[in-house]
Amino acid sequence: xxxxxxxxxxxxxxxxxxxxxxxxxxxxxxxxxxxxxxxxxxxxxxxxxxxxxxxxxxxxxxxxxxxxxxxxxxxxxxxxxxxxxxxxxxxxxxxxxxxxxxxxxxxxxxxxxxxxxxxxxxxxxxxxxxxxxxxxxxxxxxxxxxxxxxxxxxxxxxxxxxxxxxxxxxxxxxxxxxxxxxxxxxxxxxxxxxxxxxxxxxxxxxxxxxxxxxxxxxxxxxxxxxxxx
Length: 229
Fold this sequence. Notes:
Blueprint: E1 2-10, H1 23-36, E2 40-48, H2 58-66, E3 70-79, E4 82-90, E5 94-101, E6 112-120, E7 123-131, H3 137-153, E8 158-163, H4 168-174, E9 179-180, E10 194-199, E11 202-209, E12 221-228
Parallel strand pairs: 1-2, 7-8
Antiparallel strand pairs: 1-12, 2-4, 3-4, 5-6, 6-7, 8-10, 9-10, 11-12
C-alpha cells in the first residue's frame, strides 16, 4: 500500500487580499501551500498570461516558490489575453497528462477537467482536477454530467479534486461510482463545495487548512491522505 498527502485549493486568482492581483498575494498563497506540505495539490482559479494578473504563469511561480517540481496546467477558456484554468502541482514526476473540455449544453462560460498520472516511487496514481460551473444550478448540473461521463469512462482508479460549487449530497446523486472525502467540512464561507472524489483509492484524515482569515483566498484548503495500490 502506498500513501500520499493530497490537497485541493481554490486560490481565487491570487486576488483576494487586495481586491486585485498582487505579487504579495501570490507569494502568500504559495506560503500557505508550502506550509501545508502536500505531496500533490490541485489548484482552481489559476491564470496564465492574463492581463488582470500582469501576465504571470501562476502555476509555475507558485510551484517554484512552494517547492513543486512538476505541474500540469489545465485550460478552461481564453481570458484577457491569456488562459484561465486549473492546475496540478506535484513533488513526484508526472508521467502522463491530459485536458478534456466539457461538451456543455447549458453552461455558457465553459469548463474542463484534466488529469495527471503521477509516479509515486514506481506506483502510478491518477489525479483529476476540475472547477464546475457556478452560473446556475442547471449549469452546474450540466458540467457535473460531463464530469460523470468522463470519470465513468476512465479505466482505472483515481482521485478527483475540485471546486464543485455544490453540496456533497448533490455530487453523490449525480456522479456515480465514487466515494466523497468531504461530507461536512466548510471550505467556502459556511458551505462545503470543495471535495475529493475517490474510486479505487481511499481517503483518510480529511481536514481543512485556514486561508480565509487573512483573505489569502476566499476558500480554505482541503487536505487528506490518499492510500492506493
